[in-house]
Every structure is written in C-alpha cells, then in structure tokens.
Amino acid sequence: MREPRPAQESRRAREFTLFVAGAAGRLLHTAALLTGEPVSRPAPAAEELLTCALSRTYAAWDRLRGDDPYERARREMALRFAHTARRHRRPRGGPLDRLSPRERLVLVLRLYEGMPEEQTAAQLGLPAERVHALCLHAVAELRSHRPRPAPSRRPGGPQHPSAARQSGPPQEPPAAPEPGPPPHSAPTSPAP
C-alpha cells in the first residue's frame, strides 16, 4: 500500500532536510574549490552550483532508495561544473586558478573528496588513464608554484640554520657527561 501523497511529500522533505543539514557544509566547500571562490567569504558561484546540485538531487530523491544521496549530489555538482566551467575561469587569486577546469575537477574529486580513479573516470566519462594524467599534471602544476616557506626568524639568532654555519664564531661542542652513575638512578648492588 502506498503512502498518501501529502505524507510521502512530508517524509521526503524531512529526509532531504536532514541530508542537507549534514552534507551542505562539505558540499559547499567542494563547490568553492571547483569555482575557485574563497570559502571564508560569500561565494555566489559556489552557492549557485550547490543549489542546482541539491535541487536535482531532491527531484530524484524517491529514486535514490539504497543509493547514497551525497554521491548523487556530488555527481550532479561535478557534471554541472563540467558543463558550465567556462563561467568559472575568472581568476580569483587562489592556487587552483592555474589549473584548467577539468584539472581542477579531477583534483577536487580525487584528492579532496577521495574518489577512486576509476569512479572519477566513470563519472566524468573519461578513461582512467586520462584521469590519472590530469591529476598528476594538476599536482605538479600546484607544486611548481608553491610558495617557499619563509626562513624562521628568532630574536637574536640566525635567520636560517645554514646561516649559523656561515657566520659567527664556531660553536663549542657540548661538554661530555661526567663519569659515574646517571642521575636519578637507583644504586645497584653487586650480584652474589
């Protein structure tokens, strides 16, 4: 026997609301990574991407029985981003701006979302080898432009460990420990 229509809609809305309450934060972060918008500020493109993905997920909610709604929302978001990627090419000053939209999509799905290579390939309609190559290229691109860590600055000390070897008087080695039993050790008695 089927549920009456109002009860079914109420149950569906309740389930979806609980899903969104638990998953929206992570999905919004994923959307912000895809669009290149900072997560800390309002991200209208990321919010639009997430809203479209969630609305398509809600439309298919009754057909999801047994499937993971997070997977569905993430897939909808990835497909929407892939189809509208030209709109997200505006540089925003982040490190992901150096990547093509496809590289960014593969990188976010593989490394941030933790999707296996084969699943990413199937979702995007690409061969697994292409997904692997895109991910490697994206990681190499980000590493090649990684900012160098600033040297540590200690008051009165050298700015970098190698600077201590290059300037200043040579340091004396630490004094050798005095012979005898180590401090705080119990005296040992000779064995009979």
From TrEMBL:
Alphabetized UniProt keyword annotations: DNA-directed RNA polymerase, Transcription
GO biological process annotation, one example = DNA-templated transcription initiation
SUPFAM superfamilies xrefs: Sigma3 and sigma4 domains of RNA polymerase sigma factors
> Sorted alphabetically, which InterPro entries does this protein's record hold?
RNA_pol_sigma70_r4, RNA_pol_sigma_r3/r4-like, WH-like_DNA-bd_sf
Q: Respond yes or no to whether keyword Transcription is given for this record.
A: yes
Extract the ranges annotated as region (Disordered).
142-192
Tell me the superkingdom of the source: Bacteria
Q: Name one GO molecular function term.
A: DNA-binding transcription factor activity
Which residue numbers delimit the RNA polymerase sigma-70 region domain? 96-143
- GO CC field: DNA-directed RNA polymerase complex
In this chain, composition skew of type Pro residues spans: 170-192
Name recorded for this polypeptide: DNA-directed RNA polymerase sigma-70 factor
| Organism field | Streptomyces angustmyceticus
